[in-house]
User: Which sequence fits this backbone?
């Protein structure tokens, strides 16, 4: 009887794989332009590509925004990885995800390491490193001890070379810095807000002042974190909608993002319920937001079959249990 049940279930395994595979944060809505807002600053605050803001609102790139103007925005993101407590930073996503007591707590856009290597710097590069880390400590009003590589950059750019910068409005670390066990990697506030959600740092994670004010008190010494590299994310929400999120492979780690998307969708058990025309558009555009790629007819059919098979499996399991009990008596 066990063999019969296993054989039936194996035939329809893809249907049983359909379950919630991720959580989406953010939403589609309207952003009202505030005084002092620019397209760059709005993109930094919301964690969006500037080009996406322009395309979604049919704007001229040179458009001057005025207070009260309404912009369509989509800030939907798929959480790339879950941890019990701590920090996950996804490099292609340029987002920091914070978890507390076994649940998602908050997410913030960040600026990460520049992807290009400058010939004049030899082997020095400023990509943000991948890997696990621990929080070693937190500092309010930190002193910035300028790394030798950045001193070299200052010299090559004919800027004054400094070894340290005291706390204040000119300190690139801002008012808050979180030290980690990854060599040279800090999570810190920035004095350059429009650098957020871009690859503009020398490897560290920069955050907007208002976001760092929220994160800083949440982070504790010895808290664990991890920096990952995941340009493609997939989620099934409420067993009804499949979402796909694709980012640029800025550090050039993948040969083919379409193949990577197919692999992620297959791992999630969703190959048979995706509209591949929608998926190919999402992969091509690389907007960096979660978009619906559901084939609604196929997903309805899949769950009708799943429901029927669950009933069959439950029936056979009961039959097998009764047979076993009668033999033991």
Assistant:
């Amino acid at each position: 009887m066990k063999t019969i049940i296993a054989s039936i279930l194996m035939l329809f395994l893809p249907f049983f794989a359909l379950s919630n595979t991720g959580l989406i944060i953010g939403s589609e809505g309207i952003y009202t332009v505030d005084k002092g807002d620019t397209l760059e600053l709005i993109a930094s605050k919301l964690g969006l590509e500037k080009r996406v803001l322009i395309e979604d609102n049919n704007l001229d790139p040179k458009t001057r925004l005025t207070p009260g103007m309404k912009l369509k925005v989509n800030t939907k993101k798929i959480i790339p990885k879950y941890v019990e407590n701590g920090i996950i930073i996804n490099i292609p996503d340029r987002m920091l995800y914070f978890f507390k007591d076994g649940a998602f707590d908050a997410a913030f856009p960040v600026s990460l390491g520049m992807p290009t290597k400058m010939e004049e710097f030899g082997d020095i590069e400023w990509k943000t490193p991948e890997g696990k880390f621990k929080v070693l400590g937190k500092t309010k009003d930190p002193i910035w001890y300028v790394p030798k590589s950045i001193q070299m950059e200052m010299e090559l750019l004919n800027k004054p070379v400094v070894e340290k910068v005291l706390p204040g409005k000119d300190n690139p670390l801002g008012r808050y810095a979180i030290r980690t066990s990854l060599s040279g990697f800090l999570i810190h506030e920035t004095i350059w807000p429009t650098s957020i959600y871009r690859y503009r740092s020398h490897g560290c994670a920069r955050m907007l002042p208002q976001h760092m004010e929220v994160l800083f008190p949440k982070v504790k010494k010895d808290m664990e974190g991890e920096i990952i590299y995941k340009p493609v994310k997939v989620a099934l929400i409420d067993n009804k909608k499949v979402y796909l999120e694709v980012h640029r492979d800025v550090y050039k780690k993948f040969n083919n993002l379409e193949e990577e998307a197919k692999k992620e969708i297959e791992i999630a058990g969703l190959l048979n319920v995706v509209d591949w025309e929608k998926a190919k558009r999402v992969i091509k555009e690389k907007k960096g937001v979660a978009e619906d790629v559901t084939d609604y007819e196929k997903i309805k059919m899949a769950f009708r079959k799943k429901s029927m098979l669950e009933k069959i499996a439950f029936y056979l399991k009961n039959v097998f249990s009764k047979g076993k009990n009668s033999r033991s008596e």
About this structure: Residues 13 and 268 are 12 Å apart (CA to CA). Residues 296-328 form the longest helix (33 residues).
